[in-house]
Input
Amino acid sequence: MGFKCGIVGLPNVGKSTLFNALTETQAAQAANYPFCTIEPNIGNVAVPDARLDKLAEIAGSQKIIPTQLAFVDIAGLVRGASKGEGLGNQFLGNIREVDAIVHVLRCFENDDIQHVENKVDPVADADTVETELLLADLESLEKRVPAFAKKATGGDKEAKAAAAVLGQALDLLRDGKPARLTEPKDPEEERILAQAQLLTTKPILYVCNVDEASAAQGNGFSNAVFAKAKAEGAQAVIVSAAIESELVGMEADERLMFLEEMGLHETGLARVIRAGYELLHLITFFTVGPKEARAWTVHKGASAPEAAGEIHSDFQKGFIRAETIAFDDYVALGGEAKAREAGKLRAEGKAYVVQDGDVMHFLHS
Output
């Protein structure tokens, strides 16, 4: 299981350039004019994880298979999108299909690149996009909540639950607050809220697209975005799309040297993925053997059978137990055999909650 992140923002903030760099493709046509991206481009990216390489080295694995992350490059939004301005309807529809929003904000000055609002103000840009998402949700719920409330008066229990939780979301939206602040009181209300596919329930990662000189420390624009993110309990990262573009096609050693010269220790992709994992509460477990070392993604709190199901649904149905070694023990002891001898290989049952970095082998009927 990976997750799908929609790259959004106003036109000409660097969305497609970032997409091209992150996916190391030129699938998205990057150009200096609005609506360059019309159909959403999708790129699957290997998630970099140094732990996987280390496990493969110890096990002598012939193949290394990282887990995947999908990025969707979505058309630029303009003021009035919730009423269909620009490519508004298409933009909003594409956002409904993603798990999280990667909101790219222009945090650099450049007179050669047109800004749709004719000024560089990333916080105002963020507010513009968020207002359009909020207005779209507001319009949706103002139609749906009264319908559920009417059904609830006839004794429909599900309609009553929907009226309660979506009514709470509607009150938040009317106050100018995102629906993600809604507090469902039980799993049924959580399900109803999720099925409503509200745009403002999507978790947001702000990506500050800075100039090359600001890539290591940021600048005044990015500082303002980080302050906004902190106030909202959201995540923010600094990325220079220009630098990421230069990294495309470089060999690993050359890439590392280039990053060090720029005062950086990792690529923008690594920063975005780490923040994205935290945003969506995801963790990684591994399966390791002589044929392949492979990384898998599950939600934090997933049980051993659920992790087995990521490999094959039959593994979950016929789950017996999971032989599990913590990553640090696997590395310190030099592999599965030594970990077993040292008593660090554990037999875990159906109630076991998978931990980040677990090396697992599933036994099933």
